[in-house]
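Researcher: Here's a chain I'd like modeled. Treat it as a single chain, no partners, no ligands.
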Amino acid sequence: MFHAKLLELESELLAKQESERALDQLMPECSILLDEIENEIGLRLADKAFNDWKGWLTFKRSKDSLIICRGRAFSIGGILPQWRAGFDVVNGADAISEYQRHFDVSTPQELDHLRVNFGVGATTRVFLWYGENIAAYRLIFQADMSEEPDKALHEAIVEACIWILTKPKEMTLPEFLGPQGLVVNGSQD
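Model: Modeled as a single isolated chain. Structure tokens:
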């Protein structure tokens, strides 16, 4: 148990170091992968939405980082308001106007979220992180871009979204994802 925990921590540390290295230019496959995820989820922060919409939304923090979190519709405007997708928190409408003005928007602490980004080491890798409260991001998936990780990444995102919605109190995220047969930290649990 202790050895497995050390390997997990070491893997997470290496992934963080890789992801912190700046990518001068994204491989076209990386941009396509982010676009696929955005299109599959549907709404982006500040997109027009139905007045009763609640669901998942995405937004980009930088050229190589995509955030996925819960959102809902907010009325923006005066006499003829428009409904737009914002964070599923009380002040979610504030993020809409900030994002539209191209300010750097971050996910509120009370919203669990996922972050997809890339890093370079010997090869370009894709990472999926879980963010909760003010705790440091937890690495839940990593793969080499040359191995075409699209399907495995999509499965990991779906399972992590299920985790966020159901969030069993008696299980940690790796314990939840392990039985699903997903790759966590680059190894089979």
